[in-house]
Write a structure and sequence with these properties.
By secondary structure, this protein is an alpha/beta fold. It has a single domain, classed as TIM Barrel (Alpha-Beta Barrel). 42% of the residues lie in helices and 13% in strands. The protein has an eight-stranded parallel beta barrel with strand order 1-2-3-4-5-6-7-8, surrounded by seven helices. α2 packs across α4, α5 packs across α6 and α7 runs parallel beside α8. The longest helix has 18 residues. The protein binds 3-methyl-2-oxobutanoic acid (KIV).
Length: 298
């Protein structure tokens, strides 16, 4: 039986599926958040390309670069002790060729400290996926809604952020095709699969047929685990999407704290004497004396 201090590995995630224990995964993009997540006992921490829209103010994931991911991955790496640390291969870091994919997956491991990489897409990226697995790097697949390949849904050059997500696997043919793609990915050697915005029924069909753990986001109750974007979970984002759940309302709480701070600075109630360091009274008297003497000498 795994204890909360046991390091999470590919095989402990697999054991969780076999024992019917749910896997808990969240995104993180910075050191303090990852420290808290690791302490809270998360199984998997993902430095996702959602860093673009959630942290960097980008319009969509297509703007996220390898340098962006590596920068945030290194910060998260410094924090994570127990959880399995996963990183996204961003747009154009694996699509152009098998060589590019292996090279960039290797960079995430060697330069960023990732323990595994995730890449979006099905059959078109199967050669890349296989080659990364063959290079000895643990790989997570990502099917259903795959934001990187849905450029038309994004608003890269306008003020609108994000996307209009569509559910996958609404009909029997689509759901069957999804199951088939998932099986191909499993055969190619992925050790886990993320399903994003997939009907609960289709996600259940995939989860029951795959030996590897299936992690859902907007994919219903029957996946082997769940993943959320941390900013959605803490209620920092404005949008309220069906696929997420806010466990608190941090956004409004932060705005209130910023407002209160500004008001207190403006009215002089912050800082108080308790927020300051003080000279001993006799030193203060000496200072006054010195300043007065200097004044006289001028
Ligand atoms: O980038 C990301 O955060 C993701 C999750 C939605 C799984 O890929």
């Amino acid at each position: 039986m795994a204890t909360t201090t046991d390091k999470i590995t590919v095989s402990s995630l697999q054991s969780k599926k076999e024992r019917g224990q749910k896997i808990c995964m969240l995104t993180a993009y910075d050191y303090p958040t990852a420290v808290l997540q690791d302490e809270a006992g998360l199984d998997v921490i993902l430095v996702g390309d959602s860093v673009g829209t959630n942290v960097l103010g980008y319009r969509g994931p297509q703007q996220v670069t390898m340098d962006d991911i590596l920068h945030h991955l290194r910060a998260v790496r410094r924090a994570v002790r127990r959880a399995f640390l996963l990183a996204d291969l961003p747009f154009m870091s694996f699509q152009p060729s098998v060589e590019t994919a292996v090279k960039n997956a290797g960079r995430l491991v060697q330069e960023g400290g990732a323990e595994g990489v995730k890449l979006e897409g099905g059959l078109p990226v199967l050669p890349q996926l296989k080659a990364i697995v063959d290079a000895g790097i643990p790989v997570v697949g990502h099917l259903g809604f795959t934001p990187q390949s849905q450029a038309r849904e994004f608003y890269l050059f306008s003020d609108r952020r994000g996307t209009v997500p569509k559910f996958h696997g609404k009909g029997p043919k689509g759901a069957k095709a999804l199951v088939e793609q998932a099986l191909r990915l499993e055969d190619a050697g992925v050790f886990s699969l993320v399903l994003e915005m997939v009907t609960e029924e289709a996600a259940q069909a995939v989860t029951e047929r795959l030996k590897i753990p299936v992690i859902g986001i907007g994919a219903g109750r029957y996946c082997d685990g769940q993943v959320l974007i941390v900013h959605d979970l803490v209620g920092l984002n404005e949008e309220d999407l069906i696929l997420t759940k806010a466990y608190g309302q941090t956004r409004q709480a932060w705005i209130e704290m910023f407002k209160t701070y500004c008001r207190e600075v403006a009215e002089g109630s912050f800082p108080t004497a308790e927020n300051a360091a003080h000279m001993a009274p006799e030193k203060r008297a000496q200072l006054d004396q010195l300043l007065n003497d200097n004044g006289k000498n001028r």
